[in-house]
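Researcher: We're teaching a course module on how sequence relates to structure. For the next exercise, students receive a sequence and then see the predicted structure as tokens, so they can try to spot secondary structure elements on their own. Here is the exercise chain.
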Amino acid sequence: EELLKRALSPDTTFQGIISNAANKTLSQSYQEAPTTFQHWTGKGSNSDFKAAEHYRISEAGNLELTSQNGVIPYDTAMKDEKVTKAVLTYSKRWGFTREAFINDDLSMLSRVPAAYVIAAKRGVN
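Model: And here is the predicted structure for the students to work with:
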């Protein structure tokens, strides 16, 4: 109990140690969480939270069988379109009581932050 009080007091060096341990857990969990979004999305940017208009190109139409010396048809399915996108914030707060810290036989100090990192990557995915 005394260790917990000292670790959570604002003027202690233990806060840095606990924070460092949590950051390592978050970083490792982020690297290990499986995703597929990077295979079918691109990266963009918005400088603020206001909605911004951008253009994107649709998928290409299906290829068509063309005979020898046949005329290759133009793709009329592929278009550009205006879309609106904005930066959004998703979050969740969780608490950790003194009793939970003392009775931590479930490794909550590492498992809870990891669970939220995985939830964040699942949301991006």
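Model: If you want an answer key for the exercise: The mean pLDDT is 82. The first strand starts at residue 52 and ends at 57.
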